[in-house]
Design goal:
5-stranded antiparallel beta sheet; 4 helices; globular; Ganglioside M2 Activator Protein, Chain: A; 3-stranded antiparallel beta sheet
Length: 193
């Protein structure tokens, strides 16, 4: 596919907004975790504890009782049109173990991962194998997600489905997060719904 000037301009705006320090306001509405304990002999803890400021402390822990040497992460975004969530722009499937051997192969993914995860939880971003406890405890997920969302994302309700699976497509963890995105600066937000 050849890129037109318009594609290039939109891409540059998107990248500049991803890398900027400005934020949108994100509120986590719901987190749902599912896992299959038969794959990698795993256990899981996933919860949000409400706090006075309304943000809540999020804990997502995944315990590998066997070394995980080969798995994929699939990330899909959905936007709520009316009462139905429909696919929205991002459908990414990455072999995690291969990705960390060459993180620059996916530059946009690398920038988002570096900006969000490296600062908050460097223990998650490392080469395979994964073994033992992996995850986060008592974090303000609203603030972290707010830094990752580009300014050009339309305001509204989103669902992000993170599915972790083996190369034979057997899923061992699904993390579904429903959020509401609103702009801190009203001029920066677009309303699609």
């Amino acid at each position: 596919m050849k890129w037109s000037s318009l594609h290039y301009i939109i891409f540059c705006i998107f990248i500049s907004n991803v890398l900027s320090e400005k934020q949108v306001n994100v509120k986590i509405k719901k987190i749902k975790c599912e896992h299959d304990p038969t794959i990698y002999n795993t256990s899981m803890l996933c919860k949000i504890k409400p706090t006075r400021n309304g943000d809540g402390n999020t804990t997502i822990l995944f315990n590998f009782h066997e070394p995980a040497n080969d798995f994929w992460a699939q990330m899909k975004f959905y936007y709520k049109f009316g009462t139905i969530y429909r696919p929205f722009m991002v459908d990414l499937d990455v072999n995690i173990c291969e990705y960390f051997k060459n993180p620059f192969a996916l530059p946009l993914f690398y920038q988002i991962m570096k900006k969000v995860l490296n600062e908050e939880f460097p223990n998650i971003l490392h080469p395979c194998p994964y073994y033992g406890e992996v995850g986060v405890r008592h974090i303000n997920l609203n603030k972290i997600v707010s830094r990752a969302v580009p300014q050009v994302v339309p305001k509204g309700y989103y669902k992000v489905v993170n599915r972790y699976h083996l190369s034979d497509n057997r899923t061992f963890l699904t993390l579904t997060v429903e959020v509401y995105v609103d702009a801190i600066d009203p001029m920066k937000s677009y309303d699609m719904g």
